[in-house]
Amino acid sequence: MKETDEFLILKEFFKDLGNQYFDSSGLLIGPGDDAGMFSEKDQELIFSTDVSVSGVHFPKNLDSQAIAYRACAVAASDIAACGGSLKWISISLTLETNEKAWIKGFAQGVIDFVETYKVPVIGGDLAKGKECSVSVGVCGALDSQNFMKRSGAKDSDDVYVTGNLGEAYLGLNLLTDNKKNLSNIEKLWIDKYLKPKLRFEFAQELSNFANSCIDVSDGLIADLNHICEMSSLGASLDSDKIPFSGELEKALTWGDDYELCFTAAASKKEEIDRLTDLFGIKISKSGRIEKEKHVKVLKEGTPVTFEQTGYNHFNE
Amino acid sequence: MKETDEFLILKEFFKDLGNQYFDSSGLLIGPGDDAGMFSEKDQELIFSTDVSVSGVHFPKNLDSQAIAYRACAVAASDIAACGGSLKWISISLTLETNEKAWIKGFAQGVIDFVETYKVPVIGGDLAKGKECSVSVGVCGALDSQNFMKRSGAKDSDDVYVTGNLGEAYLGLNLLTDNKKNLSNIEKLWIDKYLKPKLRFEFAQELSNFANSCIDVSDGLIADLNHICEMSSLGASLDSDKIPFSGELEKALTWGDDYELCFTAAASKKEEIDRLTDLFGIKISKSGRIEKEKHVKVLKEGTPVTFEQTGYNHFNE
User: Fold this and answer.
1) What is the pLDDT of residues A237-249, one digit of tens each?
2) What is the pLDDT of residues A73-126, one digit of tens each?
3) How far is A255 from chain B (nearest CA, A)?
């Protein structure tokens, strides 16, 4: 019996991705059946989904291997932000092409991701459409008391940020400008955009000390505002203490960095400093949670204002 | 602080969908955080995802309420096909419009679905794109020994089909022809296309007797072929015993019916007949699993051939 292209593609390119991690992830049945089966009797489970659309979330001409890796990373970043370990991912791909090289590249990007974070693919779906879009589902596990909720911030908490903001924006620009002869730092920026580092172990340890956490996807101001709104509080950021590269405004409002922003009581400062050494991650104390309900950025005590406050898909 | 449209839309239309079913589903944290949290310490979990693209999986002019309901049902059908109970759904929506009425209708379709099957929405994502596409993730629970695998068919199993095939195709045609003054049976066909009935309780009971099961999404021949291929077997269908409406070829090759096709040992016939009465579901014994590795359709012992064997997204 002749099979449809859809199943041929799935069989040829998307079989057994990350199957070596079935046992460590509690995966019992993977792709190929009506559903995948898994088990988690000890911990609670967390699930999140993110969709990446061509021309919106990534440049139209980005190669398919990079599209796949980034779509997986962007989705799985939410598991890190909660303090969970990653169990499995699922991938729904809408394709505008039948081109084998493109599909092979995409599958390779998924392989790169699952091998980096040692997780299996539980399943997925494939459809033809007018534009490429990738919807990734991610499942993680944690003990419920370690879930770092957006709503957990407390008045007077310190606000911390990992890494440097704005680098993904710089990397994206280098990519779209198709710049040649890149310096080492420029290569790092591109890597930051294409392969955001997911700090699972760090965040799991952090979850013992932090009151709230979010990953910086839409820009620090917008994302910290989610914490503030869910916690019925506000925050002030000290522009001199925000770690960034490039322009401050872009660094705070563009997003794409997938660094973590978290809040913790001042009494936890020592423990948090220890995490810097333990995980080799730059952590900057950049602001403070306050009662007044909005997020402000201060430069030497004076508010700084920006034209935009965060990335908005619907502004185009 | 001004928020982005994305979050305003999520807050206005997609808040608290199915929240009344948190407890019964073991959902601990729903939408609004980086991830939703759930727990299942007693049973195993199953997960599947399905993407529905405008103009491919449903007509471009279909109203948004119907798009949403159908996308949820089509995805959740996989949980029924495995023999699971549905725990929660997640929805990634790519929109080509900002129109409030459209979005409100879509949210209403999700509400219709979650209230019909009494499940919560664990989370989702929203993006702007060039075409409407809906990726739905579904999670269910079952005892692992009850998972009806595609690979479970045994030689000489009877092949059964629920309901009538071909009705969704007839309904879809009535919709695309925009036919007025519909008869009662025509209204039922449209309903069959728009709101496939998911037979969760039936399938859970069935899982005690059946060796394999699949939902008929791409047409009986193509879907039974998945069972045969995964089981390293073949099957013959008796065209006079296949329950269908309209033309046989369309009924067997179009799909969209989301009825269940399952196989069971001949010795289980009595138990399966009993399910018909218990659940008021028409069940037809339509064929037999065989050693010879392909699916054939016989009319009075003579093979019937068709131009197409199943729906293929990539044929257009």
Assistant:
1) 999 999 999 999 9
2) 999 999 999 999 999 999 999 988 878 899 999 999 999 999 999 999 999 999
3) 13
Phi, psi of B111 (to 5 degrees): -60, -45
Q: Which residues contact B78 (CB under 8 A, 6 or more apart)?
A: A34, A35, B48, B50, B138, B215
A34 and B90: CB-CB below 8 Å? Answer: no
Q: Which helix (H) or strand (E) holds A90?
A: strand A85-95
Helices (H), chain A: 5-13, 22-25, 64-82, 100-117, 167-176, 184-194, 200-206, 220-231, 248-253, 269-279
Distance (Å, whole) CA B226 – CA B232: 10
For B268-293, the pLDDT digits (tens) are 999 999 999 999 999 999 999 999 98
- Whether residue B311 and residue A47 make contact (CB cut-off 8 A), yes or no, is no
CA distance B77 to chain A (A): 9
Quote ipTM for the complex: 0.91
Q: pLDDT-derived band of residue B312, with 50, 70 and 90 as boundaries? A: low
Q: Is B33 on the interface with A (CB under 8 A)?
A: yes
Q: Is A314 close to B5, i.e. CB distance below 8 A?
A: yes
Burial of B310 (0-12, 13-18, 19+ CB in 10 A): buried
Chain B CB within 8 Å of residue A181 CB: no
Report the Cα B240 to chain-centroid distance in Å. 25
Which of A220, A233, A214, A242 lies closest to A298 in space, CA to CA? Answer: A242
Using DSSP's 3-state secondary structure scheme, residue B13 falls into helix
What's phi and psi for A17, nearest 5 deg? Answer: -75, 115
Question: Do the beta carbons of residue B159 and residue B226 sit within 8 Å?
Answer: no
* Whole-angstrom distance, CA of residue B241 vs CA of residue A276: 69
